[in-house]
Amino acid sequence: DIDALHMDDYFYPYKVAGEQFPDQKTYETYNNGRFTNIEDWRRDNVNELVRDLNTAIKQEKSYVKFGISPFGVWRNIADDPTGSNTTAGQRNYDDLYADTREWIQKGYIDYITPQIYWNIGFTPAAYDILVDWWVKETNNKPIHLYIGQAAY
Fold first, then answer.
1. H or E element, residue 103
2. What is the pLDDT of residue 15?
3. Cα 29 from chain centroid (whole Å)
4. Which of 84, 104, 106 is nearest to 145 (CA)?
5. Nearest to 116 by CA among 138, 86, 82
6. Among 30, 88, 127, 129, fewest CB within 10 Å belongs to which?
7. Hey, which bits of the chain come out as E strands?
8. What stretches pass through the bilayer (predicted)?
9. pLDDT value of position 29
10. Spatial distance between the Cα atoms of 119 and 6, rounded to a whole number of angstroms
């Protein structure tokens, strides 16, 4: 018996300059006109998996908790007024196609453990700014927040 199921780093691969993720043909085959761009289609695939996995877990054992440990930045404020006051090069929503904010808002997860591996004062993604952002996002929602910290 288990108490929880934890997924670490579930999203599309980190972007590498000059490389494209090879899913264009899959998008063309399975999109069926639902999305006007591949980025929204990718996010929907990830959201659907997270939602359906949570549903399956709860149907089997309602007490089992389900959570994910995503990259620490959802979006930068320059890209979205609800994003964090950061300038991170990689972001969940834009680069990894993981709409972690939607998972919180729609209750697809029981807890979230954002990987905030940067220090206070790190200009692109400061620890304190990101912790405050995640606290505000999970406030008054039935989602537990556990901050992921690196041991290095």
1. helix 100-106
2. 86
3. 25
4. 104
5. 86
6. 30
7. 4-8, 65-69, 111-112, 144-145
8. none
9. 97
10. 25
Interatomic CA distance for residues 24 and 27, integer angstroms: 5
Beta bridge partners of 66: 5
Q: Compute, in degrees rounded to 10, the torsion defined by CA atoms 127, 133, 139, 142.
A: -80
State how far the Cα of 4 lies from the Cα of 131, in Å rounded to an integer. Answer: 23
Per-domain boundaries in the chain:
4-13+21-145
Which residue do the tokens 């690196």 mark? 150
Q: Is 39 helix (H, G, I), strand (E, B) or coil?
A: helix
CA distances from 4 to 8, 37, 48 (A): 13, 35, 20
Q: What does the block give as tokens for 45?
A: 């695939």
DSSP-derived secondary structure for 128-150: HHHHHHHHHHHTTSS-EE--B--
pTM: 0.93
pLDDT digits (tens, 9 = 90+) for 35-69: 999 999 999 999 999 999 999 999 999 999 999 99
- Cα–chain-centroid distance for residue 57? 19
Residue showing tokens 């620890």:
127
